[in-house]
Design a protein that fits this description.
This protein is of the alpha/beta class and about 425 residues long. It has ten helices and 21 strands. The longest helix is centred in the C-terminal third of the chain and has 18 residues, at about 310-330.
């Protein structure tokens, strides 16, 4: 089963928690801090693999998670980092976030993108010691890993694509000129998924795609139009296959016009893509290709028979030549990976209940301690918040002493702190 579009729920690993631990020594009643840090959570990476043919596996198993980091231990033993989750997808897969923004376009084997970051591991008390507090009795919690719904959408990477109405003989043609084995029968919409074949001719090779039959209105979704048209987008050359037989209700001239209209409605640049025109079934219906070429405004129209093979070598040589020309003239497609700017570290807003809500990784990290009921831990967090700018941001937003402030699940009262002591 060929699957070319799936929604997957991905979760990066959580960071492990830091630990509070002490080595009791003579003359140091509080003990020497020896608590190790937690390991970071695994990232989620997506890698293009030319050996993958479909996204089927993700339809059956759409929920995937990276490994979480382990917690720190005493004796300054740090937790193990979680393994990254590496997902392989076919070359030509495009990734979109939940808002429809493209994250990556992976067109080469081995090309990859990190879509979700694992949570940072929490620091143990050995890393939190300072001149002000040489034996802290608290440690950091690990951060949660990112989670998101991501859409994987496959667009076939082919050198040339066969475009035509249902039942014009595209599947028969690709089966004749390559090792592809598409389903073939005498009724419309036999092909419900694209097929790829490698064509060897005249010392050249190229990849040919058989795009399922298009009908008028395909760009608006008729006949699964959008699903089929998507696979034309990467083709360097389009081969317009026309059918003069009585199986088609439209003339070859009308077929050509409708196909171009649907391509243009889907993506305007497709009508300027290099193309060749062929008329199939020359063994049963004769067409004056010279006159037809003049009517269509094309330099040449090829007469072929996908069943007998007549004219196929000439057409395939022409396709190979045009593909080679495009490759020489056009730069190689490198793909695309979105480099997102770092989000705002602190964002302050007031909710409907009058509570000041502070968002941002810097603020969340500042209060991510294991036990804020300890006065020393609460004082440590307060100094961190001031240092990263949360106090200044709250004042700038209009917060007054005594107002409630919420960071994550923590709600506290805003107060003016003395900055006499600095954390080191």
């Amino acid at each position: 089963m060929f699957v070319d579009r799936v929604n997957v729920n991905l979760r990066a690993g959580n960071g492990g928690a830091g630990v509070v631990s002490f080595l009791r020594q003579k003359g140091r009643p509080k003990g020497k801090p020896t608590g190790g840090a937690g390991g970071r959570g695994g990232n989620v990476r997506v890698v293009a693999d030319e050996n993958e043919a479909s996204l089927l596996g993700y339809r059956h198993n759409p929920h995937r998670s990276a490994e979480s980091g382990t917690h720190g231990q005493g004796d300054v033993k740090h937790g193990k980092a979680g393994e990254d989750l590496v997902l392989t997808v076919p070359t030509g897969t495009v990734l979109f976030d939940a808002d429809g923004e493209m994250l990556a376009d992976l067109v080469k084997h081995g090309q990859e993108v990190t879509v979700l970051q694992g949570g940072r591991g929490g620091l143990g008390n050995v890393a939190l010691a300072s001149k002000a507090n040489r034996s802290p009795g608290f440690a950091e919690q690990g951060e949660y890993g990112e989670e998101a719904w991501i859409t994987f959408e496959l667009k076939l990477v082919a050198d040339a694509a066969l475009i035509g109405f249902p039942n014009v003989g595209k599947s028969t043609l690709i089966a004749h000129v390559s090792a592809a084995q598409p389903k073939i029968a005498d009724y419309p919409f036999t092909t419900l998924q694209p097929n790829l074949g490698v064509v060897s001719v005249g010392g050249s090779e190229f990849v040919l795609a058989d795009i399922p039959g298009l009908i008028e209105g395909a760009a608006e979704g008729k006949g699964l139009g959008h699903e089929f048209l998507r696979h034309t987008e990467r083709a360097r050359v389009l081969v317009m296959l026309l059918d003069p037989s009585s199986l088609q209700t439209e003339t070859v001239q009308d077929q050509y016009r409708i196909l171009l209209d649907e391509l243009e409605q889907h993506r305007p640049d497709l009508v300027t893509r290099p193309r060749l025109v062929a008329v199939n079934k020359s063994d049963i219906d004769h067409v004056d290709t010279v006159t037809l070429a003049a009517e269509l405004g094309e330099p040449k129209v090829y007469a072929i028979s996908a069943v007998t093979g007549d004219g196929l070598e000439e057409l395939m040589l022409a396709v190979a030549g045009r593909v080679g020309q495009v490759v020489r003239e056009a730069p190689e497609r490198e793909g695309y990976v979105l480099h997102r700017p770092v989000g705002r570290q602190i964002d302050v807003r007031r909710d409907d209940d009058g509570v000041w809500v502070v968002d941002g990784r810097a603020a969340t990290r500042a209060v991510a301690l294991d036990d804020l009921t300890r006065p020393a831990a609460a004082d440590f967090a307060a100094k961190r918040l001031a240092r990263v700018g949360v106090d200044d941001a709250l004042r700038a937003a209009g917060a007054q002493p005594g107002d409630d402030v919420r960071i994550g699940d923590l709600t506290f009262e805003f107060t003016e702190e003395d900055d006499d002591e600095e954390e080191e």
